[in-house]
Design goal:
The structure is a homodimer of 146-residue chains. Chain A has 146 residues and is an alpha+beta fold. The first copy, chain A, is built from 4 helices and 5 strands. In chain A, strands 1-2-3-4 form a 4-stranded mixed sheet, with helices on both faces.
Chain lengths: 146, 146
């Protein structure tokens, strides 16, 4: 589990993640500042794999009326490209789910790009579904800027 | 904005929502107990419309590394069936977005069933997109039980 002192390492990996996939990022410095504030909170959690770290997961927890415990959302999961296909992502995800279970979470969520076939297969192989049980309607994530 | 004392009203509407769409619900009584604990928290917010209430929104806020403010997620938005097509949902959603803006949120999210064409049109008409800006890949919501 990453400590607030690990903020620069977590920030650098998250920044690399977004740069690799051409997603906007405020840069590692801004991310470090934010992570220093967020990592001490009980509703934010980062996991690092490797030393030096080559993989990261970022999770948030939020209350739900439908579950007795908090819902866990895997905000980010990243492994450096040169170290993929070594089950590092698998290990981080398993660890993240174990921690969520320990905190009483019964629901674990992740948003995935439709075209990211590798990621979709990875999560489907780890028990995730894009539909409600017994239904075949897919669930879509919508968002807007305010 | 619903007060903790409104928990039974919020619970009854959320329970009716799930019953209407054949989604599991623990029942209004359990929901009332949970809402009494959740509504005083600053990361949970319910809005009611009408007196007696005929519509409800439930929002959660969680920290993000990508935004300076919290991300707002519209967990539920429900209007009683006999009172639809009167812009009540529109008014509640506008109110929810205004409150989120006031709290410093820059991102507002909602998960929608692919087959729920009316809901998708409603959110698209309110500025929501299922894709990232400049991309045409859809974003899918995955989940699993722990």
């Amino acid at each position: 589990m990453a400590e607030p002192a690990d903020a620069p390492v977590v920030a650098e990996l998250l920044d690399a993640f977004n740069r690799e996939f051409d997603t906007p990022t405020p840069g590692a410095e801004v991310l470090t500042t934010r992570l220093r504030q967020l990592l001490p909170r009980e509703n934010v959690l980062a996991l690092l794999a490797g030393d030096p770290a080559v993989g990261v997961a970022l999770l948030t927890f939020r209350p739900s009326v439908w579950d007795p415990g908090p819902v866990a959302l895997l905000e980010e999961l990243y492994v450096r490209p040169e170290l993929r296909r070594r089950k590092i992502g698998h290990t981080i995800l398993d660890h993240a789910m174990a921690i969520a279970r320990k905190r009483g979470s019964e629901t674990f969520e992740i948003n995935v790009d439709e075209g990211d076939v590798d990621a979709r297969r990875f999560y489907e192989n780890h028990g995730f579904a894009n539909t409600e049980p017994g239904q075949n309607e897919r669930l879509l994530y919508y968002h807007r800027r305010l």
